[in-house]
Automatic annotation (TrEMBL):
CDD domains: 6PGL (cd01400). Hydrolysis of 6-phosphogluconolactone to 6-phosphogluconate. Its EC number is 3.1.1.31. This is 6-phosphogluconolactonase. It comes from the Bacteria.
Length: 228
C-alpha cells in the first residue's frame, strides 16, 4: 500500500504516477486510455492531474461507472470529471461518456459498449474508488447484475446495475474490461475506508464486498493509494 500523510500529497503522487503511465503509453502506441471513478474522493487528484504536462490530445478519458443521469445533473460523474479534470493541460483530452440519452439504460449500455475506449486492448490506466459498503466501480453488494459484472469471461464492456445502495440505476465497466489495465489503482482515503479495505483483504465473500474481486482476481496487481 502506498500511504501518504495528506490527501494533497496523495493527489500529487497519484497524478505523477498516472501522468508517467499515460506518457509511456503515448510513446509506445501513439495514444493512451484512462478510466476514472466518480464520487467525492478523486477531486483533488483530478485537479492535480489536470496540470500535468503531457500530450493530452492523444488521451481518451472515460468513466469506470456513471449514474443514468444527464451531464447537467449534480450527481453526474461526467460533470465531476468535466469540472475537475478536463481543464488546464487536460482540456485537450477526448472524453467518452458512459451516459447516453437513450430511452432505456440497457440501450445506453449497448451504445456505450460500442464506443468506450479500451475495446480492443486493455486500458492503460484505471483508477478505482471504493465505498464503505465495499463496492467499487458500480459493483454493488446486492446488485442485480453483480455476478455477470464480476465474471471475467463477460464479453460486455459496459453493463447496467441496480442495487439498494446505489441510488440511481448505474452504467459500469465490467470487471473483464478493467482488470488488466496497464496501471490499476485503488484510491481510498480515511480511516473508515481503510478498515473496510483491511476487512476485504482479510477475506470475505465477493458478493458482500465486491472490491475483493479486484484485490484477488485482477490480472494486474492493484496499487492501493491511501491517505488518512
Ligand atoms: O458511487 C460511487 O462511489 C464510489 C466511491 O465514492 P466516494 O464518494 O466515497 O469517493 C466511486 O468510486 C464510484 O465511482 C461512484 O460512482
Amino acid at each position: 500500500m502506498k500511504t501518504f500523510e495528506t490527501g494533497a500529497a496523495l493527489a500529487n503522487g497519484l497524478a505523477d504516477a498516472v501522468a508517467t503511465a499515460l506518457s509511456a503509453a503515448i510513446a509506445k502506441a501513439g495514444e493512451a486510455t484512462l478510466a476514472v471513478s466518480g464520487g467525492s474522493t478523486p477531486k483533488a487528484f483530478f485537479e492535480a492531474l489536470s496540470t500535468r504536462a503531457l500530450d493530452w490530445a492523444k488521451v481518451k478519458v472515460t468513466l469506470v461507472d456513471e449514474r443514468f443521469v444527464p451531464e447537467d445533473n449534480p450527481r453526474s460523474n461526467h460533470l465531476l470529471v468535466k469540472t475537475h479534470l478536463l481543464k488546464n493541460e487536460a482540456a485537450a483530452a477526448e472524453f467518452v461518456p458512459l451516459y447516453r440519452p437513450e430511452a432505456t439504460i440497457e440501450e445506453a449500455a449497448k451504445t456505450a459498449t460500442g464506443i468506450v475506449p479500451g475495446m480492443s486492448k486493455a486500458f492503460d490506466v484505471v483508477i478505482l474508488g471504493m465505498g464503505t459498503d465495499g463496492h467499487t466501480a458500480s459493483f454493488f453488494p446486492g446488485g442485480d447484475h453483480l455476478d455477470a459484472a464480476l465474471d471475467l469471461s463477460q464479453p460486455r464492456r459496459v453493463m447496467t446495475m441496480e442495487a439498494p445502495g446505489a441510488g440511481e440505476a448505474r452504467l459500469t465497466l465490467s470487471f473483464s474490461a478493467l482488470h488488466d489495465a496497464g496501471l490499476l489503482v485503488v484510491h481510498i482515503e480515511g480511516g473508515e475506508k481503510k478498515a473496510v479495505l483491511d476487512k476485504a483483504l482479510a477475506g470475505s465473500d465477493e458478493k458482500d464486498m465486491p472490491i475483493r474481486a479486484v484485490l484477488e482476481r485482477a490480472q494486474t496487481t492493484p496499487d492501493i493509494y491511501w491517505a488518512p
